[in-house]
Amino acid sequence: MEKRAHLLRFIIGLMLVAAPAWTGIVANDDVDRYAYPDLVIPQESPSSLEQIKEVFEQNSQYFHDVEIINNTHYPGMKTLFFRFLQHLDPSEGEEDVCFYQRAVITNYTGPDAVTVMNTNGYDLDVSEDFHVDDIALELNANYLAVEHRYHGESLPPASSYAPEGPLTSENYWSKCRAVYASHDLCTLVNTLKKLRIFTGKWLSTGTSKNGMTTTFLAMHYPNTCDAYLPFCAPFCKSMEDPIMDVIHYKYSGFLEEEDKLTGQNSAEVWQRSCDLLTDILSNPQLLQRMMDIQRDLWERPSMPDAEACFRVVLSYMDSQWTRAIYLHVSDWARYLPARVAPDQEITDDLLRDIYTFIYISYYEIIEERNKQARALVRNFINLQDTQDADSRHRAPGEPPTKSILSADPYDVQCMIELGHYAFSLPSQIKEAVEKAGYSYDELIRRWNTFNFKPYTTLRQYYPFTPIEPEVKEFVKTTHCQILFVYGQYDPWTSAGIQDSDIPASQTNVQRILVPAGVHSNRVSSGAYYSPLDPSIGQTIIEKTRNMLGLPTGINGLASAPSPHGGQIYNLAGQRVGTGYRGLVIRNGRKVYQR
Fold it and tell me: What is the pLDDT of residues 27-70, one digit of tens each?
């Protein structure tokens, strides 16, 4: 095995010597150039997951731990899990270090069908209950999901690459960058193409950091896929980008617009939710009990009062932050407890109601994990199973472990090039914290992860260099077919690609702003929790089909008996009315509408 690995590195080294200097950006992406060279290629495309598994096993120098299981979320669907050999830095040739990247294939439709690749920006949820992205279901496409390098189990071998430890080494985290993650995806996709696993059109998609990863793939290796569909992808200008201040964003007029949608006073409900934290800080008995819960959660009975108070405030505002991003006020208003007087007697029921509001609303509404959420609330009240509660709700800032392995790869990448959101609290919270005898400035300092070890050490090695300017320039001139989708109420939209970033002459890049859309929006109503307006969802689907060169019209029907009746779309996939003049698509046929 060692000889084979040495031979592999030697071959790749020769390829790199013969090829132009590797910059991470290529003009002509090509299967032969980026797929592995010594593959056992089947004579015909495999037509089942079982046959794909056989092909992977015949190429075991690159594919490991190949397994097929039943997907319990979709009756009758099977899922193939595998690990794929990747190179940490393809420019290092024989000296390069390898690691294995986890990936999943499911919703298998056939080799000629469209393949939708979710460019995961985090670790991969490898389980029997594996969810398929709704756009793959809409397109009846094969589905490939790939874990991001440095996340989950797709880790470089720290012992061989950085003997002195990853958090004290300049080397280990230096490859935790978008350009290398893009190379991972390019290598995998082209290897699958060369093996004839998927021979049809390719769509790359993802939401939030997954959407950023899709954009980076298009930017660095533009010919890897046929089209790109990033949802809610932010591109920050700084390590703490003030344009993404979540609390201020919610106060900047969007609540008034939400009122028009829901018919309720959202601003008043949001204000009441902030008032409740003020009440907690103003009631000594309630604050003390909540501080004691934080001590038990962190298994630190001697935690100083100041730190315990900060953790109470941060856990509360973290839940506010989550609700602001993922939910409409109308989704969680029913969980909001009544206000608490400064001298009010504190009962277990009241404490349970407060922690239900802090934690259960997000889990119940977004993730539909009612049992887990209720158990979590009981843990907070009864102070049981603290390790699980700690892992689910680690407060931003100081990690729960002091190990040098405790740096979060997402935080590291934000610190190096992605940037992050800024955070501030309403003035009334600042006043309440100071009135309770604690420092507001110290609280805000604790909110920022990058003020703590190991990040203070890492920042000496990696000065922040934003990738945002490169993305904005790429959007102006790319030949890639890209559709950016953002939500009107999503704070991430403020740092996303704007209409003004796309020149009038750039016809390859499009943008849709979903009215009243939030960070959890997806295309269809069947698989996710905050479905888009059906007409907007249909527009996104039709535009995606257009980018892939697929038939458009209602559900893409190409053999409809008549062009009459049904919805009308222009050639860009947008739904239009009967007053529209020119070529339109109706029931899958092109018709000139006078």
Answer: 344 788 889 989 999 999 999 999 999 999 999 999 999 999 99
H helices of 283-328, in order, are 284-297, 305-326
Check if the beta carbon of residue 521 is closer than 8 Å to that of residue 530. Answer: yes
Token pair of 303, please?
A: 């935690």
- How remote is the C-alpha of 102 from its chain's centroid? 16
Q: Of the candidates 166, 153, 172, which has an alpha carbon nearest to the alpha carbon of residue 404?
A: 166
pLDDT above 70 coverage of the chain, percent? 70
CB-based contact 421:241 (threshold 8 Å): yes
| Residue 353 and residue 337 in contact, taking contact as beta carbons nearer than 8 Å | yes
Q: What are phi and psi of 246, to 5 degrees?
A: -60, -45
Residue 93, phi-psi category: left (phi > 0), alpha (psi -120 to 50), beta (remainder) = left
Check residue 232 and report its DSSP letter. S
- Of these ranges, 262-271, 447-456, 562-571, the one predicted with the greatest mean pLDDT is 262-271
CA distances from 373 to 26, 152, 325, 348 (A): 47, 23, 19, 18
Residues facing residue 230 across a β-bridge: 206
At 512, is the secondary structure helix, strand, or coil? strand
Domain boundaries, the chain: 2-200, 245-461, 551-594
Q: Do 235 and 472 form a contact (C-beta atoms < 8 A)?
A: yes
Name residue 208's amino acid: S
Say whether 461 sits in a helix, a strand or coil: helix
Question: Which helix (H) or strand (E) covers residue 187, if one does?
Answer: helix 178-194
If you write DSSP's letter for every residue of 48-76 in order, what string do you get? SHHHHHHHHHHTTTTEEEEEEEE-TTSTT
- Tokens of residue 196, six digits: 């004839």
Q: Is the pTM of this model over 0.70?
A: yes
**Residue/partner pairs of 403-410 with CB below 8 Å, 24 or more apart:** 404/165, 404/166, 404/167, 404/168, 404/454, 405/158, 405/166, 405/167, 406/454, 407/166, 407/167, 407/173, 407/454, 407/455, 407/458, 408/449, 409/148, 409/150, 409/151, 409/176, 410/121, 410/122, 410/151, 410/209
Q: Which residues of 232-246 are buried (b: 16+ CB within 10 A; e: fewer)?
A: bbbbbeebbbeebbb
Say if residue 141's pLDDT is above 90: yes
- Give me the helix-helix angle, 305-326 and 284-297, nearest 10°: 90
% helix / strand / coil in the chain, to the nearest 5?
Answer: 45, 15, 40
Lookup: tokens for 254: 């969007």
Strand partners, 531: 522
How far apart are alpha carbons 370 and 360 in whole angstroms? 8
